[in-house]
Amino acid sequence: MSKEDAKGGAEQTIPGTKEDVRAEAASGGTDEAASKGQAAGAGQCRGDEMLLTAVHRFAGQQGDHLLVTASNEGAKPCWVTSYPLVKLGGDVGVAALPHSKKDKPGGSKHLMLRPGGKVYSAVNLFDYGSGHHTEQSFSLALRGADGQAGPFYSVALKGEKPQFSWNEADVLNWSTTKPYNF
pLDDT tens digits for 17-27? Predict the structure, then answer.
């Protein structure tokens, strides 16, 4: 990750985005229609073919976030849907974070990632100053079309302050653009 990325200055796009966005916009959110015009035979993205990175943004401020980027490192197009399942810290028994109630609609669409393509999500962290949890890593799982989770993969944070604290947290849908104008 470049220094410019860590500061949110570089805008990244998915190759072939215009065609994919038109197909999704025309779909009305259905899986069948969303796949028209996209690579034939593309399956769900697998975590072992994805590069998952995260940067702690606005560290030490109220309303800080973890910007999550998923890159298709495989040789074939694949898709993601909904929002990632995220567990903060290293405890596998911890419940996954809920979906943000303030998120934009559209999480049921399949977002196509060509090889090298990227999608983004964010973990919203709410720290009220006392009785909070502190960590510097989390795990993430991709959801299938049926909403079920795949295997969880550990994600280490990058940036100036990788440690984060929270009392409450939630997650945003995958998107082809960075949330919160990162």
Answer: 333 332 233 22
The one-character DSSP state at 49 is G
Contacts of 182 (CB under 8 A, 6+ apart): 8, 57, 67, 120, 122
Residue of 4, 5, 161, 152 lying closest to 69 (CA atoms): 5
Q: What are the tens digits of pLDDT across the range 121-175?
A: 999 998 877 778 888 889 999 988 887 888 898 887 877 777 888 889 999 999 9
User: Which pair of structure tokens corresponds to residue 175?
Assistant: 């998107």
Our CA dihedral for 155, 2, 175, 126, rounded to 10 degrees, sits at 60
Query: Which domain, by its residues, includes 100?
Result: 3-181
The count of domains in the chain is 1
End-to-end CA separation in angstroms for the chain:
14
The residues, ordered by sequence, that sit 6+ positions from 31 with a Cβ below 8 Å of its Cβ are 81, 108, 109, 110, 145
- Predicted TM-score (pTM) of this structure: 0.74
